[in-house]
Amino acid sequence: MDAQEIMDLIPNRYPICYIDYVDEIKPGESIVATKNVTINESYFEGHFPGNPVMPGVLIIETLAQAASILILKSPEFLGKTAYLGSVKNAKFRQMVRPGDVLKLEIKMVKKRANMGIVETAALVDGKKACTAELMFIVEERTEKI
């Protein structure tokens, strides 16, 4: 999936649409997506001057966007919107810096009528930068994308 296909599926837009493309997806099972971390990201101006580091909360947001693509590509959730409900066991193992390529690996753990739970990992050069379990609430779409 390219950037336009992603924006057709999830409501996130500039400046907070972080997924550049989807490498592979198995609807209802797993997804691998990519975020290219560039120095022109606005948050690097303040986090931290002279030592740019991607904020942990934005790594989680990037994982959540990839996970929402997986969830919303599942047949039972097509045309709906996924909202982040909880973050469990988030661990930050290394800093993410400009020039890094974040590979986002998401696996579906559980699905119910209006929710999904996923295991996530953000990797840089094959090494885990962040892992977390995310839970989503899925509701009817109220906005038009």
From TrEMBL:
<keyword id="KW-0441">Lipid A biosynthesis</keyword>
<dbReference type="GO" id="GO:0009245">
    <property type="term" value="P:lipid A biosynthetic process"/>
</dbReference>
<dbReference type="InterPro" id="IPR013114">
    <property type="entry name" value="FabA_FabZ"/>
</dbReference>
<feature type="active site">
    <location>
        <position position="47"/>
    </location>
</feature>
<comment type="similarity">
    <text>Belongs to the thioester dehydratase family. FabZ subfamily.</text>
</comment>
<dbReference type="GO" id="GO:0006633">
    <property type="term" value="P:fatty acid biosynthetic process"/>
</dbReference>
<keyword id="KW-0444">Lipid biosynthesis</keyword>
<dbReference type="GO" id="GO:0005737">
    <property type="term" value="C:cytoplasm"/>
</dbReference>
<keyword id="KW-0443">Lipid metabolism</keyword>
<dbReference type="Pfam" id="PF07977">
    <property type="entry name" value="FabA"/>
</dbReference>
<dbReference type="InterPro" id="IPR029069">
    <property type="entry name" value="HotDog_dom_sf"/>
</dbReference>
<protein>
    <recommendedName>
        <fullName>3-hydroxyacyl-[acyl-carrier-protein] dehydratase FabZ</fullName>
        <ecNumber>4.2.1.59</ecNumber>
    </recommendedName>
</protein>
<keyword id="KW-0456">Lyase</keyword>
<keyword id="KW-0963">Cytoplasm</keyword>
<dbReference type="InterPro" id="IPR010084">
    <property type="entry name" value="FabZ"/>
</dbReference>
<dbReference type="GO" id="GO:0019171">
    <property type="term" value="F:(3R)-hydroxyacyl-[acyl-carrier-protein] dehydratase activity"/>
</dbReference>
<comment type="function">
    <text>Involved in unsaturated fatty acids biosynthesis. Catalyzes the dehydration of short chain beta-hydroxyacyl-ACPs and long chain saturated and unsaturated beta-hydroxyacyl-ACPs.</text>
</comment>
<dbReference type="GO" id="GO:0016020">
    <property type="term" value="C:membrane"/>
</dbReference>
